[in-house]
TrEMBL record:
Superkingdom, natural source: Bacteria
Protein name as it appears in the record: DSBA-like thioredoxin domain-containing protein
SUPFAM superfamilies: Thioredoxin-like (SSF52833)
InterPro entries referenced in this protein's UniProt entry, alphabetically: Thioredoxin-like_sf
Annotated organism of origin: Catenulispora subtropica
Gene3D superfamilies: Glutaredoxin
Length: 239
């Protein structure tokens, strides 16, 4: 069985934003990427922090990211960090739950774009839920119905649990996941990432089991000449 490329990444990392763009490009070319969400700043305030108070490493990362290629037709990174650096606990929990629902790739794209292109603050579980709902329960345009007697379309899903999840109810008000499987998935991803002993994100394990980290991981995803990998590694399994 051919191994997938594995990427450990956080949503408030500019290099991880670029990695996400290139992961989508590679997927369009038939190369699957197993994206695993981790928090590289778990001690960040749950209210987020102004960009003026952001960790210096994050600003340095933005400077590095600005020098790297972007897929044709995709949005480039802004010149500055978002006004508020988001705590990504809720985003990570939502992504872990989305794996169960099969919408994780789309949610990853929406979360990264919301933070880095739309300059949205996603520390709040309620803001993250809005993004989930946009994907799983899209809004119905009311224009065609505003001047007629036709009733608005209604989702008649009889499964209450599924309807709640489609309405964004996959994360708790405190930003944690709702299911045990998602909680274990988050814990396993974090343990696997920490075992690699590479704190600079994204961290990528290629199909040969070789490790790439930081801007080197983005360069590898972009298909550019990359430096010699740090060391070969066994590929951890997905929970």
């Amino acid at each position: 069985m051919k191994l997938k490329t594995i990427v450990y990444a956080d949503f408030n990392s500019p290099l991880c934003y670029l990695a996400g763009l290139w992961a989508d490009r590679r997927r369009a070319e038939g190369i699957e990427t197993d994206w695993r969400a981790v928090e590289h700043l778990p001690s960040l305030s749950h209210l987020g922090v102004p960009n003026a108070a952001a960790p210096p490493a994050l600003l340095h990362e933005l400077v590095e990211a600005a020098r790297l290629p972007v897929p044709e037709g995709r949005d480039r990174l802004p010149d500055a960090l978002p006004q508020i650096i988001s705590n990504t606990q809720a985003a990570t929990a939502a992504y872990a739950e989305a794996v169960t629902d099969g919408v994780h790739d789309e949610l990853r794209r929406h979360l990264l774009r919301a933070i880095w292109i739309e300059n949205r603050h996603l520390s709040s579980a309620y803001e993250v839920r809005r993004i989930i709902t946009d994907i799983t329960y899209p809004r119905v345009p009311i224009g065609p119905y505003s001047s007629s007697d036709l009733p608005l379309p209604v989702n008649r899903d009889p499964d209450l649990w599924r309807a709640v999840r489609r309405s964004g109810g996959t994360i708790a008000p405190d930003g944690g996941p709702l299911t045990t499987i998602a909680y274990r998935r988050i814990r396993t991803w974090r343990e696997q990432w920490r075992a690699l002993d590479r704190p600079d994100l994204p961290v990528l394990i290629d199909e040969r089991g070789a490790l790439h980290a930081g801007q080197d991981a983005v360069v590898w995803l972009a298909g550019q000449p990359a430096p010699t990998p740090v060391r070969p590694l066994p590929v951890p399994s997905l929970l």
